[in-house]
Amino acid sequence: MPVSDIRIAGTHNVENYLAACAAVRELVPHEVMAQVARTFNGVEHRREFVRELDGVKYYNDSIGSSPTRTMANLRSFSQRVILLAGGYDKHLPFDSLGEAIPQSVKVLILCGATADKIEKAVREAPDYQEGYPEIYRCDNLEQVVELAHDLAKPGDEVLFSPACASFDQFPNFEVRGQRFKELVNALK
Question: 134-137 and 48-53: which strand pairing?
């Protein structure tokens, strides 16, 4: 089947489908595997589409609790996104994420204990130019969502993929993702 038939976007998801298909190839008919790929919407908190409001699409990737997960999601979009990131400091390096952001992000909104580290990594990236992306800071998730809503224009995509754990403000990524969805769904 063509890759474009797979419902959830991203090369990492194509790789996941290939691994799953290989694991069950002797047990499941190929037609069933293809049908699942065409209809499966993904799991909660993993590049989960939340809603479209005023031409802006909002995605919840609260499970994106490391720089590599966030980078994989950035690669799954066909345009530069508004990225909402930051959280608890697990003492992971942000250099690679910092290098990926200028190529994939038009607006970066940071919050949490790692905001300084992520901003520093972006500003030190070889491709970074002042204002590309625009970088903003907020104190909490409520402010982050409100600012993203204020800055977004029709056609934009907003990705909540923190690249960090949630423990600075939430007990786990599920609670954090649920709160993000509540805030997005409350936007008018």
Answer: unpaired
